[in-house]
Design brief:
single chain; about 290 residues; alpha/beta; Rossmann fold; binds adenosine-5'-triphosphate; PstB-like; phosphate transmembrane transporter activity; ATP binding; transport; ATP hydrolysis activity
């Protein structure tokens, strides 16, 4: 994937080779914005929040968030720790339902259906909106059974050719060639990066429309992380990817749109990724991406 540099200054503590100085005013590290990012102008909206608030007991974690997330694109959520990124992600497939202290008001639409309507089954919703977590978490089962799991619990194992479905998902997660001769071995025996791709295979096997990823590479070494980034670029041909990341370089490399949340759960700016990193409208976003806080 080619890229160009936006010369965004950061607080990186690198040292000026000519002067030996370490000065943010002089030193500029670069955030590379992906040149091949897809335009979002003509994309349909697949997930839309309308004045969404999420509380944990009396504490507000998301503050009136309104956003339209485009289909078949990568949308990144960035912002300082505790600003509500994971809370937002969990509100999309109602994983917050599992947290007793959490309550929601406002609206969250998946393809024009409010997922908080009474007639929505959260389990069925999560088949359409899969999730990949920060630490790879395969089941203590074989590679094959990890991938087949979702189809079996849906009762679809008899309807589909399970072998073909497992192969398709493993190919989709760029793991097939590495594991095709060891499908009966434990998923836990794979490397961390392979385990994360196995979790992606498990997430895509039931054929979701959206894949939520919460810092999917932060527990991985750089090579394994880079493979996941390449994979995300392929997944978005078929799926919508919404990714929370602490890594601004990563957001700039892989996403088409970026949402910047700030403390208090406010969505401060949401735009094409190049605009966010090269020409943000909000001064607080500029301060955040240039490392003045967060
Ligand atoms: N299960 C919970 N119970 C109570 N409060 C919570 C819970 N989960 C999150 N919070 C609070 O909600 C706010 C938003 O948290 P959240 O994890 O969504 O932020 P984040 O931006 O994803 O943070 P990080 O980048 O550190 O993962 C924080 O103040 C956090 O302490």
């Amino acid at each position: 994937m080619s890229s160009h540099s936006s010369s965004t200054p950061t607080t990186d503590e690198s040292t000026d080779r000519t002067t030996g100085a370490s000065d943010d005013a002089i030193i500029q590290t670069e955030i590379d914005v992906d040149d091949n990012s897809r335009s979002t102008d003509d994309a349909e909206t697949i997930v839309r929040a309308e004045r969404l608030n999420v509380y944990y007991n009396d504490d507000r974690a998301l503050d009136d968030v309104t956003i339209e997330i485009p289909e078949n694109r990568v949308t990144a959520m960035i912002g300082p720790s505790g600003c509500g990124k994971s809370t937002f992600l969990r509100s999309i497939n109602r994983m917050n339902d599992r947290i007793p202290a959490a309550s929601v008001d406002g609206e969250l639409y998946f393809r024009e259906k409010n997922v908080y309507d009474e007639d929505v089954d959260p389990v069925a919703l999560r088949r359409k909106i899969g999730q990949v977590f920060q630490s790879p978490n395969p089941f203590p089962k074989s590679i094959y059974d990890n991938v087949a799991y979702g189809l079996r619990v849906q009762g679809k194992a008899d309807e589909v050719d399970l072998d073909a479905a497992v192969e398709r998902a493993l190919r989709g997660a760029a793991l097939w060639d590495e594991v095709k001769d060891q499908l009966d071995e434990s998923g836990l025996d794979l490397s961390g990066g392979q385990q994360q791709r196995l979790c992606i295979a498990r997430a895509i096997a039931p054929d979701p429309e959206v894949i939520l990823m919460d810092e999917p590479t932060s527990a991985l070494d750089p090579v394994a992380a880079s493979k996941i980034e390449d994979l995300i670029d392929e997944l978005v041909e078929e799926y919508t990817v919404i990714i929370v990341t602490h890594n601004m370089q990563q957001a700039a490399r892989i996403s088409d749109r970026t949402a910047v949340f700030l403390t208090g759960g406010e969505l401060v700016e949401f735009d094409e990724t190049a605009t966010i990193f090269e020409n943000p409208a909000d001064d607080r976003v500029e301060d955040y991406i240039t490392g003045k806080f967060g």
